[in-house]
Design goal:
Number of domains: 2
Oligomer: single chain
Radius of gyration: 19 Å
Number of helices: 9
Distance between the termini: 36 Å
CATH topology of the largest domain: 2-enoyl-CoA Hydratase, Chain A, domain 1
CATH superfamily of the largest domain: 2-enoyl-CoA Hydratase, Chain A, domain 1
CATH architecture of the largest domain: Alpha-Beta Complex
Strand content: 15-25%
Structural class: alpha/beta
Largest sheet: 6 strands, mixed
Low-confidence stretches: none
CATH class of the largest domain: Alpha Beta
Length: 250
C-alpha cells in the first residue's frame, strides 16, 4: 500500500493511517482508493479484530476532502472517501489528534468510538464553502449526539474543541497529548480479548436496531442473542468456576 495510507497490524488491531501531513491528511481520489483497499484488507484479515483509524503528522486527523484536487467520486457506492457508505463487520476506533474537519469528521463518525487529544478540533468547516456532507455526516452525527446538537454543528459549521466534543458525546474519551494511538490500541486489545461472537452480535443489534421500532429491535436482539447461546453457556461456566468475579478481567 502507498505511503500516503498505511495498513499495519499491531496485535489484534489493524492501524489504518492517513499519511499526507502536507495536506493536513486531506483525502483526494488516490487516497480514497487506498482507504478502501485498507478497509477491504481489514475485513479479510481474520486476526484483525479492531480497526484503528488515525492521521499522521501531529497536526490533523483528517481535514476532509482535498479541495485542491476535487477528484472524489460522489457517486461511489462505497462512499467518496473510500468506505463511508459501508459498515464494518468489526469495531473501529478513531484516534484523533488535531484537526478533524469536514469529511475527516465524517470518517471519525464512521467509527464506533472516538478518542481525542486536548488540542483536537472538530467541525463541518465545509459549510463556509458551500460543500455538502456526502460521507455520512448528516446520518451518523444525529445518531451519536442527538438531532438538536447535530443540527447545531451541521448548520453553523462552528469549531468544537475536545472538551465540548466529550461533553456532548461526540468524543468518548479525551486522552493526554500524544497518547491517542497508544490509548486506542489499548482499548482495541481489550475489545479483542472478549469472546467475539457475542460482542459482535450485540454490536450488530445496537447498530441495526437503532432505526427499528422497539418491537423489531427486540426481535433482532433475541435472534442474534440465541445464535450465541453456546458461547454464553461457556462463559457462564467459567464465571461459576470463579473466573472474572469482582471485576477481574473486565
Amino acid at each position: 500500500m502507498s505511503g500516503e495510507v498505511r495498513y499495519e497490524r499491531q496485535g489484534a488491531a489493524a492501524v489504518l493511517t492517513i499519511d499526507r501531513p502536507a495536506r493536513r491528511n486531506a483525502v483526494d481520489g488516490a487516497t480514497a482508493r487506498l482507504l478502501r483497499q485498507g478497509f477491504d484488507e481489514f475485513e479479510a484479515d481474520e486476526g484483525a479484530r479492531v480497526l484503528v483509524l488515525t492521521g499522521a503528522g501531529g497536526e490533523a486527523f483528517c481535514a476532509g476532502a482535498d479541495l485542491k484536487a476535487l477528484d472524489l467520486d460522489v457517486d461511489d457506492p462505497a462512499g467518496p472517501e473510500g468506505f463511508t457508505r459501508l459498515t464494518p463487520s468489526k469495531p473501529a476506533i478513531a484516534a484523533v489528534d488535531g484537526w478533524c474537519l469536514a469529511g475527516g469528521l465524517e470518517l471519525a463518525l464512521w467509527c464506533d468510538l472516538r478518542l481525542a487529544t486536548p488540542a483536537s478540533t472538530f467541525g463541518f468547516f465545509e459549510r463556509r464553502w458551500g460543500v455538502p456532507l456526502v460521507d455520512g455526516g448528516t446520518q451518523r452525527l444525529p445518531r451519536v449526539v442527538g438531532l438538536g446538537r447535530a443540527l447545531d454543528l451541521i448548520l453553523s459549521g462552528r469549531p468544537v474543541g475536545a472538551e465540548e466534543a466529550h461533553r456532548i458525546g461526540l468524543v468518548n474519551e479525551v486522552v493526554p497529548a500524544g497518547s491517542h494511538l497508544e490509548r486506542a490500541l489499548e482499548l482495541a486489545a481489550r475489545i479483542a480479548g472478549f469472546p467475539q461472537e457475542t460482542m459482535l452480535a450485540d454490536r450488530r443489534a445496537a447498530i441495526e436496531g437503532l432505526g427499528m421500532p422497539l418491537a423489531d429491535g427486540l426481535a433482532l436482539e433475541h435472534q442474534l442473542g440465541r445464535e450465541t447461546l453456546d458461547v454464553a453457556a461457556r462463559g457462564a461456566a467459567r464465571f461459576a468456576a470463579g473466573e472474572g468475579r469482582h471485576g477481574d478481567g473486565v
